[in-house]
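Hey, I'm writing a tutorial for new members on how sequence and structure tokens pair up, and I'd like a real worked example in the thread rather than a made-up one. If someone can provide the structure for the chain below, I'll link this post from the tutorial.
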Amino acid sequence: MSKSSPGPRSYSSATVRALFTLSGTTCYFPDCPRSVVTFIDDEPFTEVQIAHIRAASSDGPRYDPDMTDDERRAFANLILLCTPHHELVDKRHPERYSVETLVEWKTGRETAMGIERQNLAGVNEDGLIEAILAAIASTPPQRKVVVELGIGYFGAQGLIEFPTETANQFVGLEQYKNLGNQILLLTVRNTGTLPAYWDGHVLYYHPCGIARAGDNYFPYDNPTLPCRLESGQSARWLYFLPEVSNLVAFMREKKLAIETLVAKVNLGSGESIESSPLSVAFLPN
């Protein structure tokens, strides 16, 4: 009896290793901060899925009937996406994401990691993977930290975070008071390959320029600083949101311009990382 040939999802271990190595520790979707690996109670969990640029089966998006299964499962046709982005790209809105768009993501990620595809033209699949892994192995480790601001509640039921743009429609309502304290959430993620030390942070009120160091209303829940973050780990700091909102209202009464909040995190390496601006329009009234 002849042995069946590998299917479009029979990825070699080297191909999977190359994808994860080139990921730079995050989902391939542009600017997605989700790590490919997260730690829960010091145990690693994979948070991404292997996605096909050209679909693995005829009922999938961007299917190319002229491809072989070997080509469909090859490194050149694969990227890593976190579960939400995989669903977005392949199920909810596949019409928005063309082959060209996904190839651009892949090429951009590989180039950022030091891989020049034109230098690998004509190399077979095994040779391609070997060249990629060798190139990455020669690249020095990198420190990369991402800082985010969010809005939610923290109480006996744990942390509940709302989508930032619509948080003010929910936070502060009577039916949600049993969820605990309203909080402004500062999250610090280590998405690099080197450990990072979170030394301190400041919350800036722009454009007036007022700054406040990290008030600690939740000393039993906030981390002790400096806080060491291994690759793939994250930590959070809880601000008491009513205090932040009251300060914004006070500054506006004093005719001070206040439009956004920006968190600036200081690392033990001497680097400072800022969050994206959070519009004060998203804060509950």
